[in-house]
């Protein structure tokens, strides 16, 4: 699942672990919710935040983190880097998505739907 930092994690593990935490920080997504998005326990998220664990490229949580980072980057580009607007977008009803984005991304299907929506909106710019 997750590899201890002490075992010399790969550069990709460290970069993705830090990037997903920064994206969550900027969107004000708490650890419990991040755990639900990535399929990890709260304890694992806590260790991830402390730097005691990194996401392993062989695991699903790593792939989900990549999708979440991509979602954040698309949303950041669309909102022009305005974190307040991005946070509001994540927490408000979106009729095109059929729900609130933050709720939709709790499932893999929802995460990919929100990402596809953002990618399509980003292409218009």
What does this 3D model show about the protein?
The chain is mainly α and 125 residues long. The chain has one domain (2-124). The protein contains seven helices and two strands. It has helices at 11-27, 31-38, 42-50, 60-78, 83-91, 101-104, 108-124, and strands at residues 2-4, 53-55. Strands 1-2 form a two-stranded antiparallel ribbon. The chain is globular.
Descriptive keywords:
mainly alpha, two-stranded antiparallel sheet, 7 helices, 125 residues, single chain
Give a short overview:
This protein has 125 residues and is mainly α.
Order of helices and strands: EHHHEHHHH
Principal-axis shape: globular
**Discrete helix count:** 7
Identify low-pLDDT runs: none
How are the SSEs ordered, and which strands pair?
Blueprint: E1 2-4, H1 11-27, H2 31-38, H3 42-50, E2 53-55, H4 60-78, H5 83-91, H6 101-104, H7 108-124
Antiparallel strand pairs: 1-2
Helix pairs in contact: 1-4, 2-3, 4-7
């Amino acid at each position: 699942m997750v590899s201890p930092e002490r075992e010399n994690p790969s550069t990709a593990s460290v970069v993705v672990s830090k990037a997903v935490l920064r994206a969550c920080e900027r969107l004000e997504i708490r650890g419990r919710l991040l755990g639900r998005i990535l399929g990890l326990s709260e304890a694992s998220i806590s260790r991830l935040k402390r730097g005691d664990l990194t996401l392993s490229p062989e695991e699903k949580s790593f792939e989900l983190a990549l999708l979440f980072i991509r979602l954040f980057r698309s949303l950041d580009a669309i909102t022009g880097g305005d974190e307040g607007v991005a946070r509001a977008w994540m927490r408000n009803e979106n009729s095109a998505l059929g729900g609130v984005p933050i709720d939709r991304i709790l499932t893999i299907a929802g995460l990919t739907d929100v990402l596809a929506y953002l990618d399509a909106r980003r292409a218009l710019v």
